Amino acid sequence: MDRAWTIMRKEFIHIIRDPRTLSIVFIMPITLLLLLGYAVAVEIEDIPTAVYDMAKDSESRRFVERFWHSGYFKYAFYVDSTEEIVRLIDSGEVRVGLVIPPDFSTKLEAGKGASVQVIIDGSDPTIGQTALFVAQTIGQAASVDIISTQFEQLVRGGSLQVPIDLRARLLYNPDMKKVNFMIPGLIGAILQVQALLLTALAIVRERERGTLEQLIVTPIKPWELMLGKIVPFVLVAFINVGITLLVGSFWFKVPVHGDVILLLSTSLLFLLGSLGLGILISTVSRNQMQAMHLASFIMLPAFILSGFIVPRENMPLLVYYAGYLIPLTYFLVILRGIILKGVGVVYLWKQIVPMAIFSVVTFMLSALNFRKSLE
């Protein structure tokens, strides 16, 4: 027990004297608890919705207001065509579109059924299923309010019909399979983990073994050493992109509907930022265990705040806007846009530009910091 106590005492001293370890022990669990507590929501609310109201009368407005009052949908756009709804869904600005025909009120007053179309972005099954269920419930509730009038017409010799015929149209993922939503996200997650961990651990491992110092004293220049250490990881990451795309297409039946070249190009931009973070971790870590903890401290919030696990629309505003500081947030939108929707740069440039800026700046700063540590 004396020897065991000595080891325990040594470990306590090590934790107290090492600020990095101390922050990992105390700050990381609290931070992750707060993120999980506030960011991971189980209730889908405020789904961005566009409305194409061709009737534009009191009855149609009353029906649309039922959606806003439900709390599950929020007003985003009033549009003038179904094509504009599809365009907004392609760009990710809305998740649901409501199309009301011009004869909506006329048919209701005549005791006939009026068809209403709900266009739903099915690329995210969680939101798609909720939107479909709530929309059907709203349609049924509206029918109950109207059906009493039809009973009066039935007594006078009329016919009884369902007042509102709600017809749903699911885009991109009509079967609402969760695998179609998860595979593109897994590609981004694999790239994040691969680039971050391998770069950080490989460089720290060299430092622990003393081989990095041996390379420094050779005639090789710092930028040559840095390039030689990073390029293999880029190749490994691209191999993983190809493997995951093949497995997703042939095993999980999730084909790439968009431009593969655009997908690979944006993947390279994303890799620059992840590799930069890996280099930064390697310069502040003394051993592989510290590098692993720091990498986990970066990856776990990224998975939570980026929308990889749960939709970002359900997060509190502060947490929602914090997600914009994470490159994976933009990359997931790009991946799902290219793979599931088949959209191009026209719809994705709002994600590509900030991700590219963040990735390039992070990589350059981390490379400069790594070079200084070598010199």
Q: What does it look like?
A:
The chain contains 14 helices and five strands. It is of the alpha/beta class. The chain folds into two domains: 47-171, abc type-2 transporter like fold (3-Layer(aba) Sandwich), CATH 3.40.1710.10; 177-374, no CATH class. The mean pLDDT is 77. The two termini are 46 Å apart. The chain is elongated, with a radius of gyration of 27 Å. 69% of the residues lie in helices and 9% in strands. The chain has a five-stranded mixed beta sheet with strand order 2-1-3-4-5, with helices on both faces.
Question: Could you outline the blueprint of secondary structure elements for this entry?
Answer:
Blueprint (H helix, E strand, L loop, with lengths): L1 H16 L1 H21 L7 E7 L4 H13 L2 E6 L3 H10 L4 E5 L3 H6 L4 E8 L3 H31 L8 E8 L6 H32 L1 H6 L5 H30 L8 H25 L3 H18 L11 H6 L4 H15 L3 H30 L1
Parallel strand pairs: 1-2, 1-3, 4-5
Antiparallel strand pairs: 3-4
Helix pairs in contact: 1-2, 2-11, 3-6, 7-9, 7-10, 7-11, 7-13, 9-10, 10-13, 10-14, 13-14
